[in-house]
Records
---
Amino acid sequence: MTVIRPFQAKDWPALWPILKATFETGDTYAYSPQSTEAQIRHAWIDVPQATYVATSDGGEILGTYVLKPNQPGLGSHVCNCGYVVSSAARGRGLASELCIHSQAEAGRLGYRAMQFNLVVSTNDVAVRLWKKLGFEIVGTLPHAFHHSMLGYVDAYVMYKSLVVA
Amino acid sequence: MTVIRPFQAKDWPALWPILKATFETGDTYAYSPQSTEAQIRHAWIDVPQATYVATSDGGEILGTYVLKPNQPGLGSHVCNCGYVVSSAARGRGLASELCIHSQAEAGRLGYRAMQFNLVVSTNDVAVRLWKKLGFEIVGTLPHAFHHSMLGYVDAYVMYKSLVVA
């Protein structure tokens, strides 16, 4: 069974290779494929309000997500999350589990909505999954992502309210 | 004649009251109306790639803007700007001058597009001006801004390409 729990400092040596492998492909996240370990540690651990990891029964790290306010002050009731699943754990619904967990955490922390700022339009699997989990494409940013293989491609802004209107 | 030039440390004592008065209204920017001087100095001077001020003939500060990449790495060809005009200088087209200047600077710095992430939908004057200057509303964020008078209101994502497609 997968357990999702807060990141602890001891997790980093196992987490970094998973993040590195994801960002290196240059087709999913804006972080430069050449990002250093220190840069990614800052972005994934220091900057967010909270970082979580998903582990297997044996304690192996399978995935991770971050949660933070998307804007300061008068926009801070909307959170932003980012998810990464290890290549070994793909295809088992873990991204979905992480996103469902993050929505519950966001609600618990008092957020009213969740926003993804830069969903790469060519990342069909992600777009389909976020839609299935209740997110809508609320904006399209023309050529806002520099895809490592495809060049400049559109990115979507996706949004989900976490409160009853 | 108005001069637009890079911010210098000596400008801060005159700039801070202009920023403070703008953010205090809670109807335009996400920065909390209760933000401290240190917080705003960090956000307006330290974080951006560049900060500019507009001055009168006599050297009085009339307005300011910031310019920075909107995302890291593979999204860093899109910049983000924010503009503030002093209450004394409103109604003379200075916001327009600042935005035109920022588009030229962004082009010079190699950016391919400019994005505003949170244009308050009830700020008609701003929305109309950005449209006039070539920006399009590419997204609507439901209830993403907590307006000091109106409560939760929508915000727009606005975008302008700076290159010929």
---
Amino acid sequence: MRCACGVSVAYLDHIRACNAFDPTQFRPFAVAGQTVGAVARDLIPRLLDFKGVFEDGERAFAMNPKLGGFDSRSKAMAAVTTDLQREGRIKGWRNEPFRVSSDFGAEPLLQIERAAAPLFGITSYGVHVNGYVHDANGLSMWVGRRSATKPNYPNMLDNVCAGAIAFGMGVRATLIKEAHEEASIPEAISGRAHPVGAIRYCCEGDGGLRPDVLFVYDLQLPTDFKPRPGDGEISEYMLWPIGDVARRVCHSFDFKFNCNLVVIDFLIRHGLIAADDPDYLALVEGLHRPRHIL
Amino acid sequence: MRCACGVSVAYLDHIRACNAFDPTQFRPFAVAGQTVGAVARDLIPRLLDFKGVFEDGERAFAMNPKLGGFDSRSKAMAAVTTDLQREGRIKGWRNEPFRVSSDFGAEPLLQIERAAAPLFGITSYGVHVNGYVHDANGLSMWVGRRSATKPNYPNMLDNVCAGAIAFGMGVRATLIKEAHEEASIPEAISGRAHPVGAIRYCCEGDGGLRPDVLFVYDLQLPTDFKPRPGDGEISEYMLWPIGDVARRVCHSFDFKFNCNLVVIDFLIRHGLIAADDPDYLALVEGLHRPRHIL
């Protein structure tokens, strides 16, 4: 699965990069008896200083069961994360609540500030969109360049639009919102996007663990339509033949880490990677990391 | 994920059916230090009667390491499976050698008769093809009915063509061969098929365990082309609107067990299941069972 150019990055390297973490450094994090994340072992002593909020059990590090409901858990967690942010353990603050639950469809057990979610290994759910064009020249894909002033991954290449699913938002509703805000794609066009699957990976990052799920949409854009940067997340859009996109993924780390997986999934679904490739199964299955991480 | 009709079969039921087995009843089966399958605990005493062929280790039930190479292992296994067939422990005999290896791309450690593979929980690799038509009426799919005289799953519904990948055959070569033999699709047409992913499941069946991998292809057939039964595996082909296929999968077990998963994967990739469906992630991820089964 290497390009003819012979350089050393390959599709599988991106799967590995998105799944790089040392499980021995983390303990499962449980709330109300359900595993919802993972906490770094060396953060545990600090967390136990917050009296009455956590307890270190045999099976998992857990929230104190006496914090009986959604509201009391969320309030206790907000106090903890505010302090941790002050101590410099959390970079940034997004004012975006993430749901904490054992699975996407499961009952939310509390909410947590987005920037603090990695410290507790909380799964984040996002939407990524492949914006492509099919014309007489074949298949092309719109690629965004992230703004130079973004705190995360500035200047890196990105999908046409993407965003985290905020607490209470639907998957499709997030797609419509991000397409509009980020890429100036009106709902009359973004509404034609098709959900085509989901990707799961887990890596260390942002001070903790990032077990992420990306819902993936394909959006065939009209040949006369050009996405435009909207909210400043993206500085420019470029339309590249799909072969150029594939080569860029295959032999560089120029795309933001998880966008590589979204492109690889697109290449697989559109028949652009041969099933006889020796890496084929590892690629297909590498996009779907098993849910229970520790 | 249930049809409006309200009957009790649903897409997830097919995922569950294809992954139903009791792991406590099996031990890993290893060859040359590599896990290649699983053996039922209650078959182990019988297998140990074959002097010098197997040994019951702490980590796994294993082939005797003194059987040093591919040929000697294959010969010893052939003697074992011939006896087991005589004893009625193996139904049928296909005269089709399966590779035994730790993974599809890995070095083959021995070969085993196809009908005997489930007794040792050997992963089988197959190709399944979605034959579809896209015209003014939308998307339709060709559905086959299996011959009434087939020993396995007679009269059940099936994909347009499918087959096991025999030892030494490539994935694409198997697709071309099966399309020709089973559905009378000439290479000029089957050659347009796109590989679009792979499905993995593991269930009890055929006297043992079936950890199967299906390489999936989409083949858009010309509107004026009609697949015809070739080798007698299929008795008739029917072209159904995709909604009818989806409903049939959703509320019946009329399709051969694993073909349901191939159709569900098609529905997901073609945007026909909403990402906001509460079962969405379970469906997407249920098509990719983790490789290490025990």
